[in-house]
Predict the 3D structure of the following.
Amino acid sequence: MYLAMSRLKVLSGKEDEFESSWKSRETNTDGIKGFKKFNLIKGIVNKEFSLYIVQSEWNSENDFINWTKSDLFKLDHKNPTQQKNLCLGPPDFDGYQERPDFEGYKLII
């Protein structure tokens, strides 16, 4: 599994407009190889901005990279100016790969 995460700083007072733009955006994820789901997560809030994370889940990093090179990606990102006036700068991106061989933490009582 691969998680692609973009952090956005949405200007204070623009949160409802930002969330509304995400709810009404055109998405073309049907049939995209390896795509699992999108999540919009709201984080810290301060006087200047509210932090949002846009998370997408993929079968593999290759599936995500192939999508970013596709015509569907270009179509989904054709009008970034709709959110330009809502955010402090461009998004910060991070990608994460699942470690299937990692057992994680065990609770010992």
Summary: The chain has a mean pLDDT of 85.
